[in-house]
Sequence to fold (115 residues):
Amino acid sequence: MGFLRKMRAAFHDDWCGKCQSQMAETGRQLYMLPVTVDHYTPHRDADFFIGNMRKVSVKAEIPTGFYACGAISYRCPECGHRMVKLSVFLPVRDQELPEDVICFENGEMDAFLWQ
Ligand SMILES: [Zn+2]
Fold:
């Protein structure tokens, strides 16, 4: 990943990594991470999320003090490239305190997310 792409990714994380087009959202799902507040350490491996995320319907299903993880899938309308973005955050009352954002661009999460 080049420097320019990294800079862009920081501001436009829904941009296609292959052709720089804006990607279209194709689905989203909310999960709980069984990790308590202040105990999250950054992860970049899909296996961690696949092994730990628990699907929930609404944020209220996540016990107080546990992290949430929102998954959004994108598809590039120009070249067909796909990406899944995971946003780890801590739900605190009406707020979402962001903790980490991880993008998977090689289909690592596909079988898990949309089964
Ligand atoms: Zn593209």
Observations:
- Residues 3-113 form one domain.
- Confidence is low (pLDDT under 50) at residues 5-9.
- The beta strands are 24-36, 54-56, 66-75, 82-92, 95-104.
- Residues 16, 18-19, 21, 76, 78-79, 81 surround zinc ion (CB under 6 Å).
